[in-house]
Design a protein that fits this description.
The chain has helices at residues 19-29, 33-41, 199-206, 217-223, 285-288, 373-376, 405-418; strands at 3-4, 52-54, 58-65, 77-84, 88-96, 113-122, 129-130, 136-143, 161-170, 177-182, 185-190, 192-197, 227-231, 241-247, 254-259, 263-268, 275-282, 300-304, 309-316, 328-338, 355-359, 366-367, 390-394, 399-403, 426-429, 440-444, 455-462. It is mostly beta strands and 463 residues long. The chain has two domains: 3-67 and 284-462, no CATH class; 77-273, no CATH class. Strands 4, 5, 6, 7, 8, 9, 12, 13, 14, 15, 16 and 17 form a twelve-stranded antiparallel sheet that branches. Strands 1-22-21-25-19-3 form a six-stranded mixed sheet, with no helix packed on it. Strands 2-27-20-24-23 form a five-stranded antiparallel sheet, covered by helices on one side.
């Protein structure tokens, strides 16, 4: 997913709103909430005298594919497979390479490898998606191509793999304590995944003939290009499986080779290593049929993280607010998004928040709207507008609410001043600032022309 931040003209746009109105707005928004509320509470109309309300817009919604998401060198990665009963099959794999703990590693003249074990730590602070009573199955294969920590990789990346080093069947246990030995020292961790790799691989790593490959990280990575963990889905029935966060940068996430009975060497996963997510999806027909149906309204749409799905929202009739040629001042433009409550379970909760963006002017990339400035650069911590944008989930009403005052005001101002029609609609996504959060949500949009689904309510004053 690519977000284009275009803030150049945010504070430089000419406005047709009279200067007195602008000064009044700046002064009122510079006050604390309690200061502003005092005067409003003295008036029966709440301060909206002469204000008009319009909430009868036609809103068209459909599900589309999300742009691919950058997955290189994330702070956390995700692993697992799920058969979501509503959104279908999803796989999240990991590709990574390793760093040497020291150069010129020497296993001796007659090494006897015992085993090679890959240890991965689950991230206990991240929410896991799905259920984990079902066995997870995945392969660990050797990478056949170099991957680079300095390069950019996206969620659509398909690794070029070779030899099978492990065929894994295991449960993801997040609270069990796992113990192991390193050079005779007992170590332990809570929530660790231990994967035993092939002994032949250990023989190759310790072979004296490969000693020259440990002269530098570059030589080592040319010799051993890394591992790919590739989940399987063929054993999953609807409602089975899950995706969990892995902390590859945890000090206990590493590859250990045991040899000569009591010795071991570790191969590190650190910030110099490539750590790439590779995601695959197989959507049911009721979702995929929406992808290429521009202009068609669907009363139920989907949003999915990890570069999966987003909802396109088109709002008709916005320019009716200025059809008479006279400017307006937007008091509030509130967009309410309704979740289909029956689709929420303990295994499939609603995301904590969503992000409302708009399509780019020349492509389908996600571009910010003016109101998002409240989130990314609040003018003042006391300014009431710094939380005005919204987007957090309200579990009591099963809704997300956004305020798009600035965005709508600029659309109308540009239309009146230059005749420009910039209403490109909106994209509703699960934020990519937490790309390891695997989740989805189903929206209840209502039938076209009917109330009860997504709703835009605009309160405004004619100038």
């Amino acid at each position: 997913m690519k977000i284009s931040w275009r803030i150049t003209s945010l504070f430089l746009q000419r406005s047709i709103v009279p200067l007195c109105v602008i000064l009044t707005l700046v002064f009122s928004q510079g006050c604390k909430d309690e200061d502003r509320s005092l005067g409003l509470n003295l008036r029966a109309d709440g301060g909206n005298i002469d204000a008009l309300i319009l909430d009868s817009f036609d809103i068209i919604t459909r599900t589309i594919r999300e742009d691919s998401l950058r997955t290189d060198s994330l702070s956390l990665n995700v692993l697992g497979a799920i058969n979501d009963p509503l959104t279908g099959l999803r796989k999240a794999g990991i590709c990574l390479d390793f760093a040497l703990p020291e150069i010129n590693i020497d296993f001796g003249s007659t090494p006897e490898p015992d085993s090679v074990v890959l240890t991965l730590l689950f991230d206990k602070n991240s929410e896991h998606y799905g259920e984990f009573q079902t066995l997870q199955r995945f392969e660990v294969r050797r990478m056949e191509e170099r991957i680079y920590g300095s390069d950019q990789y996206y969620s659509t990346y398909i690794p070029n793999t070779g030899a099978l080093l492990a065929d894994v069947e295991t449960h993801f246990n997040f609270s069990d304590t796992v113990t192991w030995l390193e050079n005779g020292v007992k170590k332990s961790a809570v929530g660790a995944l231990r994967i035993k790799l092939s002994k032949e691989f250990g023989t190759e790593l310790t072979s004296p003939s490969n000693r020259g490959n440990y002269s530098s990280n570059e030589s080592f990575r040319n010799f051993f290009k890394g591992l790919a963990l590739l989940p399987k889905t063929d054993h999953l029935s609807p409602g089975e499986g899950g995706i969990a966060a892995i902390d590859l940068l945890n000090a206990n996430s590493k590859m250990l080779i045991y040899y000569n009975d009591t010795l071991s060497k570790e191969f590190l996963i650190n910030s110099t290593c490539a750590r790439i997510g590779s995601y695959e999806s197989d959507y049911p027909a009721n979702i995929s049929s929406q992808f290429d149906q521009g202009g068609t309204h669907y009363p139920e749409t989907y949003i999915q993280s990890l570069g999966g799905l987003k909802t396109k929202i088109e709002i008709k009739g916005l320019y009716d607010l200025v059809a008479d040629g006279n400017p307006v001042f937007i008091n509030e433009a509130k967009l309410t998004i309704r979740v289909k409550k029956s689709t929420l379970t303990e295994d499939y909760p609603a995301p904590d928040r969503l992000l409302l963006l708009q399509p780019g002017s020349e492509d389908s990339s996600n571009t910010f709207i003016l109101d998002l400035i409240d989130e990314i650069a609040p003018i003042n911590p006391l300014w009431i507008g710094n939380t005005n944008y919204g987007g957090s989930y309200d579990s009591k009403t099963s809704t997300y609410t956004f305020r798009i005052n600035r965005h709508l005001q600029k659309l109308l101002d540009d239309f009146l001043a230059q005749g420009t029609v910039n209403n490109r609609g909106f994209y509703l996504i699960i934020p990519s600032d937490r790309p390891v959060t695997a989740s989805r949500v189903v929206l209840e949009n209502g039938e076209l022309g009917m109330r009860g689904g997504i709703e835009l309510k605009v309160t405004y004053i004619k100038l």
